[in-house]
Design brief:
alpha+beta, 4 helices, 7 strands, globular
Length: 174
């Protein structure tokens, strides 16, 4: 079982957005079999080193982006408007990852989202949650739309996490 401190650190790393420019040395590309690992920030580097997962990993012509959690942190509100803002924050993290590999949301071919429909992180119905999420998604991802699978689940690593967003981008190296 994961310790609460470990869970808190993983969640913080997966949801942190920096208002400041990336520290010197980021983004960082780490060579790997068939491609490379993308580390977009110092927080992502700490997670990579401590928890042994890559924010994103390129394999051939595809970039696989690890799940990014959207939901309230601390005392943030849990209504639809607040969740739309929390989702925007998650999409900004994904944008950082994509840009670190010189990609955009137009390169994303698949989204997988894992939704906690009835959890403590959102006060509202499933339809209200999905609409709030889709509103933010559409700000970052205009047509043509990628394939998308939305799955309901009973929980995420973050206790108050509402949705975890995973993406796959197709972008042959130029």
């Amino acid at each position: 079982m994961l310790k609460p401190a470990l869970i808190a650190a993983l969640v913080a790393a997966a949801t942190a957005v920096h208002a400041q420019p990336a520290p010197s040395g980021y983004p960082r590309i780490v060579p790997s079999a068939g491609g490379h690992v993308v580390i977009q920030s110092g927080n992502a580097q700490r997670s990579y080193d401590e928890f042994k997962y890559a924010p994103a990993r390129r394999a051939g012509d595809y970039l696989y982006i690890s799940g990014v959690i959207a939901g309230p942190r601390g005392g943030q509100a849990r209504d639809a408007a607040a969740f739309t803002d929390q989702t925007r924050q998650a999409f900004r993290i994904i944008d950082q990852i994509l840009k670190a590999d010189r990609l955009t949301f137009a390169d994303v071919v698949t989204i997988n989202t894992f939704h906690v429909w009835n959890g403590p992180g959102f006060n509202g119905t499933r339809d209200e949650q999905f609409a709030a999420f889709a509103k933010a998604k559409d700000e970052f991802m205009p047509p043509p739309h990628p394939a998308w699978t939305a799955v309901g689940t009973t929980g995420l690593l973050a206790d108050d996490g509402v949705v975890e967003i995973q993406m796959i981008a197709y972008a042959p190296k130029k």
